[in-house]
Amino acid sequence: MPTLPPSAEAVFVASDALARGGLVIVPTDTVYGIAADVRDDAAVLAVYAAKRRSADFPLQLLFGRDPSWLERYAVVTPAARTLVDALGPGGWTIIVPAREGWSSPALSGGATVGFRMVPVEITLDVIDALGGPVAASSANISGGTSPLTCAEAVAQVGAACAAAIDNGPTPQGIDSTVIDASGADVRILREGAIDRATVARILGLAQIPVARSIRS
């Protein structure tokens, strides 16, 4: 499995591997992720196998620079839109209703989808070259430590991957904050790179409940 620094070659190798149904280790601002083309059900299921994780736990979707993609897969609620506009690409995963008319093992049979937009140019380049979003999760064995370097990711899930991109240590060094904005009441399911006080301030709320922790 090649491990490549950010480059045009890395974009080609990674996007080609994804298009062929392979898995790729990609950098984000929070931790390294393992990704598959969300349009390929077999590849999405391979993410679960690589992580040794039950398919009952949904995966998140990482989107590229084309804003129209998000509307094809998700119903962006007013609270979610407020958060995205205020935060920009960064250390959050926002859960909203999934758009009717598509299905994926990444949803784990549910009606909601978590989405991310990461401020990492090489990962955005790969997704844009693929032509669609990727289903992703932290590149670790389920229950293990989320990887902050490419080497840590490769050590855990590299055997299942077709390529890896090494962008150096992740700047945040902590998992994304998972915000459930799918219903009337916004909740935090995992506090991470963005603290609950920031989420509450953006939404004009006194506080945000933290519902439960979720598996990485």
Structure description:
This protein is an alpha/beta fold and 216 residues long. The protein has a domain at 3-74 and 102-172: DHBP synthase, CATH 3.90.870. 30% of the residues lie in helices and 19% in strands. It contains seven helices and ten strands. The chain has helices spanning 8-19, 41-51, 68-73, 78-87, 121-130, 150-157, 196-203; strands at residues 3-4, 24-26, 33-37, 60-62, 92-97, 112-116, 134-138, 163-165, 177-180, 187-190. Helix 1 (8-19) crosses helix 5. It is globular and about 50 Å long.
Spell out the CATH superfamily of the domain at 3-74 and 102-172. DHBP synthase
The CATH C-level class name of the domain at 3-74 and 102-172: Alpha Beta
Strand order of the main beta sheet, please?
1-8-2-3-7-4-6-5-9-10
Structural class: alpha/beta
Low-confidence stretches: none
The radius of gyration is 16 Å
Helix content range of the residues, please?
25-40%
- The outline comes out as globular
Short description:
By secondary structure, the chain is of the alpha/beta class.
Supply the key terms.
DHBP synthase, alpha/beta, about 220 residues, globular
How do the helices and strands line up, and which of them pair or pack?
Layout (H helix, E strand, L loop, with lengths): L2 E2 L3 H12 L4 E3 L6 E5 L3 H11 L8 E3 L5 H6 L4 H10 L4 E6 L14 E5 L4 H10 L3 E5 L11 H8 L5 E3 L11 E4 L6 E4 L5 H8 L13
